[in-house]
Write a structure and sequence with these properties.
Elements lengths: L2 H19 L16 H10 L2 E4 L4 H18 L4 E2 L7 E5 L10 E8 L2 E8 L2 H16 L8 E4 L5 E5 L29 H12 L4 E3 L12 H14 L5 E5 L4 H4 L11 H17 L5 E4 L16 H12 L5 E5 L31 H9 L10 E6 L23 E6 L15 H8 L12 H5 L10 E5 L14 H13 L5 H12 L4 H22 L30 H5 L5 E2 L16 H7 L10 H4 L2 E2 L10 H24 L7 H33 L14 H6 L9
Parallel strand pairs: 1-2, 1-3, 3-5, 7-8, 7-14, 8-9, 9-10, 10-11, 11-12, 12-13, 13-14
Antiparallel strand pairs: 4-5, 4-6, 15-16
Helix pairs in contact: 3-4, 8-9, 13-14, 14-15, 15-19, 19-20
Bound molecules: beta-D-glucopyranuronic acid.
């Protein structure tokens, strides 16, 4: 062989291997790379010699396939399947009251030096979850010696809500276009659909709402339903049901009726026939998610009916098939019509209500609380975690604990609409846990939000947790690689509310990157601090909703020109010469009255209110003395600056690991962190310069001075910011 030929072959081989092994994040946390600890690998190989999975359902076949890929990858040798008598890893179906329909047990037993691992469940689906648990143990390099675990989900419906449109744009999506290719469905089944299902099953997610809450009735036409059925068929073996959003006016738009009035028999009949058609195609169709009478979406109030009337009509249509309705509580007070220059006089229509009672904080509660007890058994009211809208930090929605006769489903947002969108690294588990762990005191001490959501406090048969998806067709699914950790969080928290943010981060890092202790420890700390850093550089001390209009990208606390007063930042921060913040105590909107007295007491006194929520509940003087001894103004400046410093710290931590992360992912994260740093500086400078026009106080000397003017920040425009 000539030297040139050898060189050419070497080059080709190199090219191929780098192509094949380049890490682009597509494999998520299911990477199954060979165990890099030689001693452990030997142990694992000794124990896991062959696997037995009996039966032959679609789900059982999925389990076999996953074990084949997973174990072969992790151990480096082709895994053998054997029968129950000889195998060392055995999956068996049992009848056990403790395991339920989705739970599993897994344990190992060593007899005369031979270890056997047994995974048991009542159902194929339980075995599937057990299979993923087992693979996770290996990926996390855990010991297989004598352990025994029983695991069953606390929440029944564990769902992703896609805000995906039929034209493949994604509302508030920052990771490319929709992964649903409606044009090529139903005949073309993209490998992504299968990998999406695997990823969800691996963390226990058992449902997906395919379409945007700002709904398009077309998805309910027979052409689209056939496409939906193809996705449902693909997901079924993975234990995942599909759901759709139902546009309330569908009977008019695609049914040719004159009305969508829920009391009208022809409308009721239309939905019944539609449900029948859907269930014929998709026998395990999950049901509908509905956004009604909110932000321009039609709903029962168009006909002077209540949300309960609307929800119940749909509930009756799907009930014969076991379907459910998730009816959203994200609504506004229709009486607030127009903004004027003064937020205090924003209600100009003839049904005007004073601003105090029109506080957007209170609107969902005011409309839904009176309906408690009026919903059918198969309706869940889906409530966002906070009273406003997925802000960096919100107190819990007062509906939790207030509607005791209705199952309330939690709605979180994975996609980072208000949390730095696609560029910011923000690990959301601490945010979700903060809400779930908060005590509502509605049934005495210990009435935490988690117990309301899982149905245990007010005993409901159905329970649910959903989160708005952050998934798109970007190669790494979530645009920002660390967005994957938020997807992972949803599944793990919906399965087990007690699991800590630390544990979630730990699991995700080990599976996604590395088991190296120093790496895991440092990156875990980075992740756990990321949310607080973001709160600080965007909305410290209880500020909220001060982002730009429309696309919501970047700061615009000065914004005051939107048609509804309660869409404008100035409505929320209320900065003036006297101070800043929204008085929601009895002297203000009295939104605090929607909470139990114990919660109210925690927040109602400006001197004892948790400072994290200070400006959520109080209009506070610029010179108010904070617990640190500083004035409010100085504290605000310091918090904003801490946020920036927090991001710089994240950068330093990440940069330490250049040699431990593959080049592609290392560079991606590094570049995004550098954008995040610029954005944090932008938030800090723009907000401080603007608020300074009211406080008239100096920015403390220890803090970096803004290098641009307020006019500059106000002049920034982003007409093509994504997700809008
Ligand atoms: C807001 C989003 C908007 C959504 C709405 C909702 O800006 O795009 O349609 O929530 O949840 O946060 O319905």
């Amino acid at each position: 062989m000539t030297r040139q030929l050898i060189l050419a072959i070497t080059l080709i081989v190199l090219l191929f291997t780098t192509r094949l092994f380049a890490e682009d994040g597509y494999r998520l946390w299911l990477r199954y790379d060979k165990i890099d600890n030689p001693a452990l690998l030997i142990q694992y190989k000794k124990i896991i010699q062959s696997v037995s999975v009996k039966g032959n359902s679609p789900t059982i076949n999925v389990i076999r396939q996953e074990l084949k890929n997973g174990l072969t990858g992790l151990l480096g040798d082709e895994i053998k399947f054997a029968d129950t008598e000889t195998a060392s890893v055995i999956f068996i179906k049992v009848t056990s009251p403790t395991l339920g329909a989705e739970g599993f047990s897994i344990g190992s037993n060593t007899v005369s030096g031979k270890t056997t691992i047994i995974i048991k469940a009542n159902t194929d689906k339980g075995l599937l979850y057990g299979c993923f648990y087992f693979l996770r143990l290996l990926q996390m390099q855990q010991s297989l010696d004598n352990f025994s675990i029983i695991s069953a989900p606390e929440i029944k419906l564990r769902l992703l809500d896609h805000w995906d449109n039929l034209n493949r744009s994604v509302e508030r999506g920052y990771a490319g276009i929709s992964i649903w290719n409606w044009h090529t469905l139903p005949d073309y089944i993209d490998q992504r659909y299968i990998d999406y299902a695997r990823a969800n099953a691996s963390i226990g997610i058992n449902g997906t709402v395919l379409t945007n809450v700002n709904a398009n009735a077309l998805v309910l036409t027979s052409m689209y339903l056939n496409k939906v059925a193809a996705l449902a068929n693909t997901f079924r073996p993975y234990g995942i049901k599909v759901y759709l959003t139902a546009r309330f006016s569908s009977p008019i738009e695609i049914g040719g009726l004159k009305t969508a009035d829920p009391i009208d028999p022809s409308v009721q009949q239309w939905w019944k026939v539609k449900a029948k058609e859907i269930y014929k195609l998709i026998p395990d169709f999950g049901g509908f998610l509905v956004k009604a009478n909110s932000e321009g979406q039609p709903g029962p109030q168009n006909y002077n009916r209540t949300h309960a009337d609307g929800a119940n009509m749909l509930a009756d249509a799907v009930a014969p098939y076991g379907g459910i309705i998730m009816w959203r509580a994200f609504v506004y007070d229709v009486r607030v019509q127009k903004a004027t220059e003064d937020y205090g006089a924003d209600v100009v229509d003839k049904n005007a209500v004073p601003i105090a009672s029109a506080d957007r904080f209170k609107q969902a509660y005011e409309q839904f609380k009176p309906l408690d007890g009026q919903f059918r058994k198969n309706v869940l009211v889906q409530v966002k975690n906070g009273p406003i809208d997925f802000q960096p930090r919100e107190p819990f929605s007062p509906l939790f604990g207030a509607m005791q006769q209705t199952p309330l489903m939690m709605e979180f947002q994975l996609t980072q609409e208000y949390l730095g969108q696609g560029t910011n690294l923000v690990f959301e588990a601490p945010l979700f846990k903060e809400v779930l762990n908060t005590d509502t005191y509605t049934k005495g001490k210990g009435s935490v939000v988690a117990k309301i959501v899982d149905g245990s406090l007010y005993t409901h048969d159905i329970s649910g947790m959903a989160a708005v998806s952050n998934i798109g067709n970007d190669r790494n699914w979530t645009g920002n690689l660390f967005g994957q950790a938020n997807w992972y969080t949803l599944g793990r928290l919906a399965w087990n509310g007690n699991i800590s943010s630390e544990q979630i981060a730990d699991e995700w890092i080990r599976q996604t990157f590395s088991n190296s202790k120093i790496f895991v420890d440092d990156i875990k700390e980075l992740m756990l601090n990321s949310r607080e850093a973001m709160v600080n550089y965007m909305t410290p001390l209880g500020l909220h909703h001060i982002m730009a209009n429309g696309h919501h990208y970047g700061p615009a606390p000065w914004s005051d020109n939107l048609p509804r007063a309660d869409w404008n930042p100035v409505y929320y921060h209320r900065a003036d010469a006297a101070g800043i913040g929204f008085d929601r105590t009895a002297t203000g909107s009295n939104a605090l009255a929607q909470y139990a007295p114990e919660v109210r007491r925690l927040y109602e006194n400006v001197n004892t209110c948790d400072e994290k929520f200070l400006l959520w509940f109080h209009h506070v003087s610029w010179t108010h003395k904070m617990r640190s001894g500083r004035t409010l103004w100085d504290e605000l400046c310091n918090k904003y600056n801490d946020g920036v410093l927090g991001v710089r710290k994240m950068q330093n931590t990440w940069n330490k690991f250049e040699n431990m992360v593959d080049k592609e992912r290392f560079e991606q994260v590094k570049m995004l962190l550098s954008i995040q740093e610029k954005e944090a500086v932008w938030w800090r400078n723009a907000c401080l310069l603007y608020f300074q026009t009211f406080s008239k106080m100096e920015i403390p000397t220890a803090i970096e001075k803004p290098d641009r003017t307020l006019e500059y920040y106000k002049s920034l425009k982003f007409p093509y910011a994504p997700g809008n």
